[in-house]
Amino acid sequence: MYSYEERMDAVQCLIQNRFNYTTTIMELGYPTSTQAPRNWYNEYKANGELHLKDDTQRKYSKEERLAVIQYYLENGRNIKKTIRDLGYPSRQALRQWLKGEVPED
Question: How many angstroms from the chain centroid is the CA of residue 52?
Answer without folding.
Answer: 11
